[in-house]
Amino acid sequence: MIIRKPVASDRQQLLGLCTEFHKKYDREAVLSTETLPFSEHKDLDKDLRADLEDLFDENKFIVFVAEDGNALTGFIAGKINEYPEKVLDKEGFIDDWFIREGYRSKGIGRLLYQALIREFKKRGCTHLALDVFAENKLAIDYYHKLGFKDYTIVMKKRPVS
Description:
CATH class: Alpha Beta
Radius of gyration: 16 Å
CATH superfamily: Gcn5-related N-acetyltransferase (GNAT)
Number of helices: 4
Low-confidence stretches: none
C-alpha cells in the first residue's frame, strides 16, 4: 500500500472514490430517510466534478490517496482554516476521508490520517477539526478513539414552520 499525493492521471479513479463516498456510502449506509434531504444535491454529478477540481488545487486542499497496485483504495482531503482572532488560530480541517469497502479495517485510514496530520503540523496548524453526520456512529466512535471531542451540535428541521 502506497500513500501519496494524487497526480493528474488519478482524476478518474479519485472521481470514482468521491462518487462512491457521496452516492453510495453516505446516502445508503449512513443517512436516514429523515436526514437525507438535507444533504441532497440538485446535480450531484456536476458538484462532484467541481469538487474534484478543488481537490487538485493545492491552494484549497491537501489530499493524499492510498494506492494498491494501480488502484486507488481511499483518500483523505483537508484544508487549513485561519482564525487570527483565536488563540488556536490555525485549524487543520479534515474535509473528506474515505476507504473503499474491502480495504477497511486494514490500517489504510490511519496511514492516510497520519500523512495529512504530518502536513498540517508542517504548516503550523494548532488544532484539528472535522464534521460528521450525527447518524454515523461508526465514524464518531473512531474519531473519539483518535482523540477528537464533541464540540458543536447542528440541528435541522423540515418543513420551515
